[in-house]
């Protein structure tokens, strides 16, 4: 398999409930496919008009390392597996103000 995963469209029936949480769906799919919930990624769920049924997408990776390799960063961040390192607010503002003092392609060279 190319991306070392199973992928599927999930239909979730939830009569009487407005929606089902993604963590619940992850745990249920993990139990059904006999894997741990950390390798199950669910996203894109839309609830049908009138409620009672939601449709979304699920990916089940073979290992967590492969999931980290192939999953986009924003979905890893939702699972708490990726943290973007950002400079402090003050550093960003100081850099922006230094960039205002130069023109053109020199902006990229401003530290």
From TrEMBL:
Gene Ontology cellular-component annotations: ribonucleoprotein complex; ribosome
Pfam families named among the record's database cross-references: Ribosomal_S24e
Keyword Ribonucleoprotein: yes
GO molecular function: structural constituent of ribosome
Region (Disordered): 76-111
Keyword Transmembrane among record annotations: no
Protein name: 40S ribosomal protein S24
Coiled coil: none
GO BP term, example: translation
Cross-referenced InterPro entries: eRP_eS24_sf, Ribosomal_eS24, Ribosomal_eS24_CS, Ribosomal_uL23/eL15/eS24_sf
N-terminal signal peptide: none
UniProt lineage: Eukaryota, Metazoa, Ecdysozoa, Arthropoda, Hexapoda
Biased composition (Basic and acidic residues): 76-85
Organism: Hansa devergens hydra
Family classification: Belongs to the eukaryotic ribosomal protein eS24 family.
HAMAP family, sorted: Ribosomal_eS24
Keywords of this entry: Ribonucleoprotein, Ribosomal protein
Biased composition (Basic residues): 86-111
Origin: domain of life: Eukaryota
